[in-house]
Amino acid sequence: MARTLVISPNWIGDAVMAQPLLRVLKDQHPQRPIDVLAPKWVAPVWRAMREVDTVLEAPFRHGALQLRERREYARMLKQRGYADAYVLPNTLKFALIPWLAGIPKRVGYKGEMRYGLLNVMHHDNRDAQRPMVSFYAALADMPRADVPAPSALPRPALYVSDERMQEVVSRAGLRVDRPLVLFAPGAEFGTAKRWPAAHFAQLAMRIMQDRPQVQIALMGSGKDKEVCDEILAQAPGLFNLAGVTALDEAVALIARADAMVSNDSGLLHIASALNRPIVAIYGPTDPLHAPPFSDVAESLYLTLECAPCKQRECPLGHHRCMREITPEMVWQPVSRMMQKD
Protein backbone atom coordinates (compact mmCIF):
# COMPACT_ATOMS: atom_id res chain seq x y z
CA MET A 1 0.00 0.00 0.00
CA ALA A 2 1.25 3.48 -0.90
CA ARG A 3 2.16 5.71 2.04
CA THR A 4 2.51 9.46 2.71
CA LEU A 5 5.60 10.97 4.34
CA VAL A 6 5.43 14.24 6.30
CA ILE A 7 8.72 15.82 7.33
CA SER A 8 8.21 17.66 10.62
CA PRO A 9 9.19 21.20 11.55
CA ASN A 10 11.81 21.55 14.27
CA TRP A 11 9.56 23.47 16.68
CA ILE A 12 6.96 21.86 18.93
CA GLY A 13 4.33 24.55 18.35
CA ASP A 14 4.75 24.35 14.58
CA ALA A 15 4.32 20.57 14.70
CA VAL A 16 1.03 20.99 16.55
CA MET A 17 -0.22 23.54 14.05
CA ALA A 18 0.66 21.23 11.17
CA GLN A 19 -1.84 18.63 12.42
CA PRO A 20 -4.78 20.01 10.37
CA LEU A 21 -2.71 19.25 7.26
CA LEU A 22 -2.74 15.58 8.26
CA ARG A 23 -6.50 15.71 8.76
CA VAL A 24 -6.98 17.10 5.25
CA LEU A 25 -4.61 14.49 3.76
CA LYS A 26 -6.57 11.73 5.53
CA ASP A 27 -9.80 13.05 4.03
CA GLN A 28 -8.22 12.93 0.58
CA HIS A 29 -6.78 9.41 0.97
CA PRO A 30 -8.49 7.67 3.92
CA GLN A 31 -6.66 4.35 3.43
CA ARG A 32 -3.18 5.78 2.96
CA PRO A 33 -0.98 5.52 6.10
CA ILE A 34 0.85 8.70 7.10
CA ASP A 35 4.39 8.50 8.46
CA VAL A 36 6.15 11.47 10.07
CA LEU A 37 9.91 12.00 10.05
CA ALA A 38 10.60 14.18 13.10
CA PRO A 39 13.45 15.28 15.38
CA LYS A 40 13.59 13.30 18.60
CA TRP A 41 12.52 16.32 20.69
CA VAL A 42 9.33 16.82 18.62
CA ALA A 43 8.40 13.15 18.05
CA PRO A 44 6.16 12.80 21.17
CA VAL A 45 3.78 15.43 19.78
CA TRP A 46 3.25 13.45 16.58
CA ARG A 47 2.69 10.25 18.55
CA ALA A 48 -0.31 11.94 20.19
CA MET A 49 -1.98 12.46 16.78
CA ARG A 50 -4.50 9.84 15.69
CA GLU A 51 -3.72 10.38 11.98
CA VAL A 52 -0.09 9.25 12.29
CA ASP A 53 0.71 5.63 11.56
CA THR A 54 4.47 5.64 12.29
CA VAL A 55 6.83 8.26 13.74
CA LEU A 56 10.37 7.97 12.38
CA GLU A 57 12.94 9.78 14.53
CA ALA A 58 15.41 11.68 12.36
CA PRO A 59 19.00 10.60 13.12
CA PHE A 60 20.58 13.83 11.86
CA ARG A 61 22.41 16.47 13.88
CA HIS A 62 20.67 19.84 14.06
CA GLY A 63 21.96 22.18 11.37
CA ALA A 64 24.33 19.68 9.74
CA LEU A 65 24.03 18.68 6.06
CA GLN A 66 25.31 15.10 6.57
CA LEU A 67 24.79 14.25 2.89
CA ARG A 68 26.08 10.69 3.15
CA GLU A 69 23.80 9.96 6.13
CA ARG A 70 20.81 11.46 4.33
CA ARG A 71 21.49 9.36 1.26
CA GLU A 72 21.61 6.19 3.38
CA TYR A 73 18.43 7.16 5.21
CA ALA A 74 16.68 7.90 1.91
CA ARG A 75 17.54 4.39 0.76
CA MET A 76 15.66 3.01 3.76
CA LEU A 77 12.69 5.30 3.10
CA LYS A 78 12.52 4.12 -0.51
CA GLN A 79 11.69 0.63 0.73
CA ARG A 80 8.56 1.95 2.52
CA GLY A 81 6.81 2.82 -0.73
CA TYR A 82 5.86 6.48 -0.41
CA ALA A 83 3.58 8.03 -3.03
CA ASP A 84 4.08 11.58 -1.78
CA ALA A 85 6.07 13.66 0.71
CA TYR A 86 5.26 16.97 2.40
CA VAL A 87 8.38 18.87 3.46
CA LEU A 88 7.38 21.32 6.20
CA PRO A 89 10.80 22.82 7.09
CA ASN A 90 12.02 25.39 4.55
CA THR A 91 15.62 24.20 4.43
CA LEU A 92 17.48 22.55 1.57
CA LYS A 93 18.69 19.58 3.61
CA PHE A 94 15.19 18.29 4.41
CA ALA A 95 14.05 18.61 0.78
CA LEU A 96 16.99 16.40 -0.19
CA ILE A 97 15.58 13.37 1.62
CA PRO A 98 12.41 12.65 -0.43
CA TRP A 99 14.29 13.53 -3.63
CA LEU A 100 17.05 11.05 -2.80
CA ALA A 101 14.37 8.49 -1.88
CA GLY A 102 12.76 8.86 -5.31
CA ILE A 103 9.34 9.79 -3.90
CA PRO A 104 7.24 10.79 -6.95
CA LYS A 105 5.34 13.78 -5.49
CA ARG A 106 7.38 16.16 -3.31
CA VAL A 107 5.50 19.15 -1.87
CA GLY A 108 6.69 22.19 0.06
CA TYR A 109 7.37 25.91 0.08
CA LYS A 110 10.12 27.46 -2.03
CA GLY A 111 12.29 28.06 1.03
CA GLU A 112 16.02 27.65 0.55
CA MET A 113 16.29 27.43 -3.27
CA ARG A 114 14.74 23.97 -3.60
CA TYR A 115 13.82 23.95 -7.28
CA GLY A 116 14.08 20.40 -8.64
CA LEU A 117 14.08 18.85 -5.20
CA LEU A 118 10.39 19.74 -4.83
CA ASN A 119 8.05 19.29 -7.79
CA VAL A 120 4.94 20.89 -6.25
CA MET A 121 6.23 24.31 -5.17
CA HIS A 122 4.19 26.65 -2.97
CA HIS A 123 5.06 30.30 -2.34
CA ASP A 124 4.45 32.32 0.81
CA ASN A 125 3.45 35.98 0.71
CA ARG A 126 5.85 37.79 3.03
CA ASP A 127 3.70 40.94 2.94
CA ALA A 128 0.58 39.08 4.12
CA GLN A 129 1.77 36.16 6.19
CA ARG A 130 -0.67 33.32 6.67
CA PRO A 131 -1.76 31.94 10.04
CA MET A 132 0.37 28.88 10.74
CA VAL A 133 -2.44 26.34 10.46
CA SER A 134 -3.35 27.77 7.04
CA PHE A 135 0.31 27.93 6.01
CA TYR A 136 0.72 24.17 6.48
CA ALA A 137 -2.77 23.02 5.47
CA ALA A 138 -2.42 24.81 2.11
CA LEU A 139 0.16 22.18 1.11
CA ALA A 140 -2.64 19.60 0.74
CA ASP A 141 -3.90 21.39 -2.39
CA MET A 142 -2.28 22.75 -5.52
CA PRO A 143 -0.43 26.06 -5.09
CA ARG A 144 -2.61 29.17 -5.16
CA ALA A 145 -2.54 32.71 -3.82
CA ASP A 146 -5.37 32.32 -1.32
CA VAL A 147 -5.43 29.77 1.49
CA PRO A 148 -8.22 28.46 3.72
CA ALA A 149 -8.93 30.53 6.82
CA PRO A 150 -8.30 28.78 10.17
CA SER A 151 -12.06 28.71 10.74
CA ALA A 152 -12.46 26.57 7.61
CA LEU A 153 -9.95 23.97 8.80
CA PRO A 154 -10.07 21.23 11.43
CA ARG A 155 -8.65 22.45 14.73
CA PRO A 156 -5.35 20.95 15.88
CA ALA A 157 -6.12 17.91 18.04
CA LEU A 158 -3.97 15.64 20.23
CA TYR A 159 -5.12 12.59 22.16
CA VAL A 160 -4.10 11.19 25.56
CA SER A 161 -5.91 8.32 27.28
CA ASP A 162 -7.41 8.77 30.75
CA GLU A 163 -5.16 5.98 32.06
CA ARG A 164 -2.04 7.73 30.79
CA MET A 165 -3.16 11.04 32.33
CA GLN A 166 -3.70 9.51 35.76
CA GLU A 167 -0.43 7.58 35.62
CA VAL A 168 1.66 10.69 34.85
CA VAL A 169 -0.19 12.95 37.31
CA SER A 170 0.44 10.48 40.12
CA ARG A 171 4.08 9.98 39.15
CA ALA A 172 4.61 13.76 39.26
CA GLY A 173 3.43 13.84 42.87
CA LEU A 174 0.14 15.57 42.07
CA ARG A 175 -3.32 14.62 43.30
CA VAL A 176 -5.74 13.32 40.67
CA ASP A 177 -8.72 14.46 42.78
CA ARG A 178 -7.72 18.14 43.07
CA PRO A 179 -7.89 20.94 40.45
CA LEU A 180 -4.68 21.52 38.52
CA VAL A 181 -3.45 24.81 37.04
CA LEU A 182 -0.30 24.77 34.92
CA PHE A 183 2.08 27.66 34.21
CA ALA A 184 4.41 27.61 31.19
CA PRO A 185 6.78 30.53 31.86
CA GLY A 186 9.45 29.60 29.32
CA ALA A 187 9.80 30.36 25.63
CA GLU A 188 12.41 28.71 23.45
CA PHE A 189 12.46 31.63 20.99
CA GLY A 190 13.85 34.18 23.47
CA THR A 191 13.33 36.29 26.57
CA ALA A 192 11.07 38.81 24.80
CA LYS A 193 8.22 36.26 24.79
CA ARG A 194 8.43 35.67 28.56
CA TRP A 195 5.94 37.20 30.98
CA PRO A 196 7.98 38.34 34.03
CA ALA A 197 8.67 35.70 36.68
CA ALA A 198 7.44 38.08 39.38
CA HIS A 199 4.08 38.34 37.59
CA PHE A 200 3.75 34.55 37.51
CA ALA A 201 4.57 34.44 41.22
CA GLN A 202 1.98 37.10 42.07
CA LEU A 203 -0.64 35.25 40.02
CA ALA A 204 0.20 32.00 41.85
CA MET A 205 -0.20 33.68 45.23
CA ARG A 206 -3.57 35.09 44.17
CA ILE A 207 -4.80 31.67 43.02
CA MET A 208 -3.61 29.95 46.21
CA GLN A 209 -5.24 32.64 48.36
CA ASP A 210 -8.58 32.41 46.54
CA ARG A 211 -8.55 28.67 45.76
CA PRO A 212 -6.34 26.87 48.31
CA GLN A 213 -7.34 23.43 47.00
CA VAL A 214 -5.82 24.16 43.57
CA GLN A 215 -2.47 22.61 42.68
CA ILE A 216 -0.15 24.80 40.58
CA ALA A 217 2.67 23.23 38.59
CA LEU A 218 5.41 24.93 36.57
CA MET A 219 6.10 23.29 33.20
CA GLY A 220 9.04 23.51 30.83
CA SER A 221 12.25 21.95 29.65
CA GLY A 222 15.54 21.94 31.50
CA LYS A 223 16.28 25.33 29.90
CA ASP A 224 13.29 26.76 31.77
CA LYS A 225 14.31 25.49 35.21
CA GLU A 226 16.04 28.74 36.17
CA VAL A 227 12.99 30.93 35.56
CA CYS A 228 10.77 28.33 37.27
CA ASP A 229 13.09 28.31 40.29
CA GLU A 230 12.79 32.10 40.39
CA ILE A 231 8.99 31.86 40.48
CA LEU A 232 9.09 29.15 43.14
CA ALA A 233 11.35 31.29 45.35
CA GLN A 234 8.70 34.03 45.33
CA ALA A 235 5.69 31.69 45.59
CA PRO A 236 6.53 28.62 47.71
CA GLY A 237 4.16 25.71 47.45
CA LEU A 238 4.22 25.29 43.68
CA PHE A 239 5.35 22.12 41.94
CA ASN A 240 8.40 22.76 39.75
CA LEU A 241 8.36 20.15 36.98
CA ALA A 242 10.66 22.00 34.55
CA GLY A 243 13.25 19.56 33.27
CA VAL A 244 11.68 16.76 35.32
CA THR A 245 9.03 15.59 32.87
CA ALA A 246 9.77 14.37 29.36
CA LEU A 247 7.67 15.89 26.57
CA ASP A 248 5.30 12.92 26.35
CA GLU A 249 4.70 13.23 30.11
CA ALA A 250 4.16 16.99 29.77
CA VAL A 251 1.51 16.29 27.12
CA ALA A 252 -0.30 13.95 29.53
CA LEU A 253 -0.15 16.48 32.38
CA ILE A 254 -1.49 19.25 30.16
CA ALA A 255 -4.34 16.96 29.08
CA ARG A 256 -5.37 16.76 32.76
CA ALA A 257 -5.12 20.52 33.48
CA ASP A 258 -8.16 22.54 34.53
CA ALA A 259 -6.49 25.71 33.22
CA MET A 260 -3.15 26.75 31.78
CA VAL A 261 -1.34 30.10 31.71
CA SER A 262 1.33 30.26 29.05
CA ASN A 263 3.57 32.48 27.02
CA ASP A 264 3.49 31.97 23.25
CA SER A 265 5.33 28.64 23.30
CA GLY A 266 5.10 25.03 22.23
CA LEU A 267 3.34 24.06 25.45
CA LEU A 268 0.64 26.64 24.73
CA HIS A 269 -0.14 24.99 21.42
CA ILE A 270 -0.13 21.53 22.98
CA ALA A 271 -2.74 22.75 25.49
CA SER A 272 -4.74 24.21 22.62
CA ALA A 273 -4.71 20.93 20.72
CA LEU A 274 -5.83 19.13 23.89
CA ASN A 275 -8.71 21.63 24.18
CA ARG A 276 -7.73 22.80 27.66
CA PRO A 277 -8.82 26.20 29.05
CA ILE A 278 -5.97 28.61 28.27
CA VAL A 279 -4.86 32.13 29.05
CA ALA A 280 -2.27 32.93 26.37
CA ILE A 281 0.08 35.89 26.91
CA TYR A 282 1.44 37.55 23.77
CA GLY A 283 3.92 40.41 23.54
CA PRO A 284 6.41 40.47 20.65
CA THR A 285 4.40 38.02 18.54
CA ASP A 286 1.07 38.34 16.76
CA PRO A 287 -1.75 36.36 18.45
CA LEU A 288 -3.54 36.07 15.08
CA HIS A 289 -0.57 34.22 13.58
CA ALA A 290 -0.68 31.31 16.04
CA PRO A 291 -3.71 31.63 18.36
CA PRO A 292 -5.04 29.00 20.76
CA PHE A 293 -8.02 27.06 19.39
CA SER A 294 -9.48 25.74 22.66
CA ASP A 295 -13.19 26.08 23.32
CA VAL A 296 -12.24 28.20 26.35
CA ALA A 297 -9.31 30.50 25.62
CA GLU A 298 -8.35 34.12 26.18
CA SER A 299 -5.41 35.82 24.50
CA LEU A 300 -3.92 38.88 26.21
CA TYR A 301 -2.13 41.34 23.93
CA LEU A 302 -1.60 45.07 24.45
CA THR A 303 -1.30 46.17 20.80
CA LEU A 304 1.51 48.62 21.56
CA GLU A 305 2.91 50.80 18.80
CA CYS A 306 6.13 48.73 18.82
CA ALA A 307 4.40 45.34 18.69
CA PRO A 308 4.64 42.79 17.29
CA CYS A 309 8.39 43.27 16.87
CA LYS A 310 9.06 39.51 16.52
CA GLN A 311 12.47 39.91 18.16
CA ARG A 312 14.12 37.50 20.59
CA GLU A 313 14.91 40.33 23.02
CA CYS A 314 13.13 43.66 23.41
CA PRO A 315 14.95 46.00 20.97
CA LEU A 316 13.84 49.06 23.01
CA GLY A 317 14.85 47.60 26.37
CA HIS A 318 11.56 48.29 28.18
CA HIS A 319 9.66 45.02 27.52
CA ARG A 320 6.38 46.91 28.09
CA CYS A 321 4.41 44.48 25.92
CA MET A 322 4.79 41.83 28.63
CA ARG A 323 5.45 43.83 31.80
CA GLU A 324 2.25 45.85 31.44
CA ILE A 325 0.07 42.75 31.29
CA THR A 326 -0.56 42.65 35.03
CA PRO A 327 -1.18 39.58 37.21
CA GLU A 328 -4.70 40.93 37.84
CA MET A 329 -5.40 40.97 34.08
CA VAL A 330 -4.49 37.27 33.93
CA TRP A 331 -6.26 36.39 37.17
CA GLN A 332 -9.63 37.53 35.82
CA PRO A 333 -9.92 34.89 33.05
CA VAL A 334 -8.22 32.23 35.20
CA SER A 335 -10.78 32.76 37.96
CA ARG A 336 -13.63 32.36 35.47
CA MET A 337 -12.12 29.14 34.17
CA MET A 338 -11.88 27.76 37.71
CA GLN A 339 -15.46 28.60 38.68
CA LYS A 340 -16.69 25.27 37.37
CA ASP A 341 -14.74 23.36 40.06
UniProtKB/TrEMBL annotation:
GO terms for cellular component: cytosol. It catalyses: an L-alpha-D-Hep-(1->5)-[alpha-Kdo-(2->4)]-alpha-Kdo-(2->6)-lipid A + ADP-L-glycero-beta-D-manno-heptose = an L-alpha-D-Hep-(1->3)-L-alpha-D-Hep-(1->5)-[alpha-Kdo-(2->4)]-alpha-Kdo-(2->6)-lipid A + ADP + H(+). Pfam families: Glyco_transf_9. InterPro entries: Glyco_trans_9 (IPR002201), LPS_LOS_Heptosyltrfase (IPR051199), RfaF (IPR011910). GO terms for molecular function: ADP-heptose-lipopolysaccharide heptosyltransferase activity. It comes from the Bacteria. The keyword Nucleotide-binding does not apply. It is an enzyme of class 2 (transferase). Keywords: Glycosyltransferase, Transferase. GO terms for biological process: lipopolysaccharide core region biosynthetic process. Its EC number is 2.4.99.24. Belongs to the glycosyltransferase 9 family. This is lipopolysaccharide heptosyltransferase II. It comes from Noviherbaspirillum saxi.
